[in-house]
Amino acid sequence: MVCHLNDCFRLTFGERPTEPIDTLFTRTVIKGIALYSPFPWPHGYRSRPEYDQERGGTAPTSFENDLDEFRKLFARFVREGAKLRWRHPSFGEMSTKDSFRWAYLHIDHHLRQFGA
Q1: pTM, 2 dp
Q2: How far apart (Å, rounded) are the C-alpha atoms in residues 78 and 98?
Q3: Quick check: 60 and 53 in contact, CB under 8 A?
């Protein structure tokens, strides 16, 4: 989970590219529901292969090293987030507000997944 989050933060910096799969429907309806509805994200959706540690994502090293990397990437995201211009593979262009909301929900989703 930590390596998955790290890969996703690298996406926001343009350091972990992916092919876009967005459509008008995912950029508008799904993005709006995913980012701004009051419901937690459901579990069970497969990640894109680039961000799935079993199918092409960054392999875990040690928990301590991976967590240290997460802390660095997250701090960088917080510092640079307002200046970032990036595309989510499904949601398309992400505004500053969308980016920070996505980061919060994504981390929260995985913490809940593991009961943290």
Answers
A1: 0.91
A2: 13
A3: yes
Cβ-based neighbours of 23, under 8 Å, separated by 6 or more: none
The 10 Å CB-count burial string (b at 16+, else e) for 85-98 is: eebbbbbbebeeeb
For residue 92, give the 3-state DSSP assignment.
strand
Q: 3-class DSSP state for residue 94?
A: strand
Q: Which residues pair with 88 in a beta bridge?
A: 92
Instruction: Please state, for a pLDDT cut of 70, what percent of the chain lies above it.
Output: 100
The mean pLDDT value for 32-52 works out to 89
Interatomic CA distance for residues 105 and 112, integer angstroms? 10
DSSP assignment letter at 49: G
Tokens of 37: 């509805």
Q: Quote the tokens at residue 7.
A: 């890969």
